[in-house]
Amino acid sequence: MSPSTPPARPRLAAHVLARRHLVGEDERVILHDVRTGQLLQLGAREWVLLSAADGTRDVEGIVIAAAREGAHARVPAAQAFFAELHAAGLLGEDDAGEDAARCGSTAPAALTAPAALTTPAALTTPAALTAPAMHALDPGERDPRERPLEVLPDFSLHCDGSGSCCRIYASILFDPEEAARARALRPDVLSGGARHERAFTPERGTWPCAASVVAMRDGGCAYLEGEGRCSLHARGGPDAKPLGCRTFPTSFVDDGESVRVSVAVECACVLASVGRPGGVPLLDPRILARRDLDERIDIARLPERAQVAPGATAARAEVVAWSRRLAAAAPPPDVAAGLFSLAVALESEGLTGGAIARFERPDPLDPAALGPWLAALHGRAARRAREDAAWRSERDLARRATAWIADATLALSEPDLLGALLLSPVRAPDRERFYLRAALHGHRLIGALPLSLALRDRAVRLVVARALPAVVAGPGADDPACAEPIAIVEAALRGHGLDAYAADVAAAG
């Protein structure tokens, strides 16, 4: 077959995510190529045609199958449609092995698994919540199932039920049993009671997967009630929700000594719970060791060696011990300044130097040092805001959040405004201190970026969150999610690929 010739039996490639969105009553399907970031919008008829392309039919067979679903097309028009998809690199053939590897083995353990419609860097499994990559077990190592669970202390969750976490992510995954239960409880949602494909699309491609992604209405899960409440929870209790929704915002990371159980600061409820007793614990107190956890929960594991600074690594045990010392240190008056000063000290002194003292008594933030980071984040956010405006609903929280971040970073490109913000008192220092505490406990600073760059990244996020209230205006300004700007920034950066801006800065040198 010539590279320019479409497959005889076409199918959507496994590296393409298809997500159904309803904007009001207007249905559209967005294809996202995770390799290139390319987006393509389809209408309902085109999606029926494409979903019939499962790799077993030629174009004539696809046209017949689509016609049975009410989507009529002539063969020449269908051939031209698939030729266009092929030219864009969106079709696959004989890649069932790739599909099986990506889709077939385990059920999803995440609320936000592939962050669809984002850059490839945002493609993550949610239970890990972008924690470090898994690492093979050393043959002489103690069975990790025996490791104790170390839960973030002095925190319990008060959920206000507003559903903001169900409205800002690009994908919410259901395994087959969870999807069937949801359709049985709410058969009226998108007429999906007897038709799985009306309410769900495959996690990847058009090949059957172990995970399906629920359709989104105005950016929120289709199963949300009008008041933002989960109708599955309302009708079937908490166990009626998919596992990822039940465990969110809890994260699990095995650091070789214990499994750290922490929280992702990506929902307003998390920060609103700070200092409030009497909430729901992150984990049932009867669950004491890794073996007690649901086997479907994705537990990430720190690598044997972690990047501390560009070109410098340290053993996992050293980094874990250093992280514990930092968590026990006195918080600085300005957490963002402390993180930036700590990054500079790590690059000059390493883990064994006096870096933590620099964290406790930091230098003031330097607008010139922040500039490249803010500019890179603005570039990512502005591009995404333009893309979102072409197809997302104006009521879509993800669209609004990305636009707010683009506006905030643009405002901070003015040196006088940035300088004034940095000199202003921090409005919610307790929120920033908790944000850092949760990140340290959950090892969320140890990942793809060197630790020193991850510290700068987090400082920048806090600065942007401080600026966000000044740009949030108009429709959506009264959204409950706006009460906690840090959570908006965190969810948008991880859930929609904006966090790749840090890699842009690193690549630029």
Describe, in plain words, how this protein is organized in 3D:
The protein has 509 residues and is of the alpha+beta class. Among the domains are: 11-91; 173-241, no CATH class; 305-508, no CATH class. It is built from 19 helices and 16 strands. Strands 4-3-2-10-11 form a 5-stranded mixed β-sheet. A 4-stranded mixed β-sheet has the order 6-13-12-14, covered by helices on one side. The chain is globular. It starts with 10 loop residues before the first strand and ends with a helix. 50% of the residues are buried. The model is unreliable at 94-102 and 104-137 (pLDDT under 50).
The shape is globular
Low-confidence stretches: 94-102, 104-137
Biggest sheet, strands in spatial order? 4-3-2-10-11
Q: Mean of residue pLDDT? A: 88
What is the overall number of helices?
Answer: 19
Largest sheet: 5 strands, mixed
Tally of strands: 16
Distance between the termini: 43 Å
Q: Provide the β-strand percentage band.
A: 5-15%
Give a short summary of the structure.
The protein is an alpha+beta fold. The chain has 19 helices and 16 strands. The two termini are 43 Å apart.
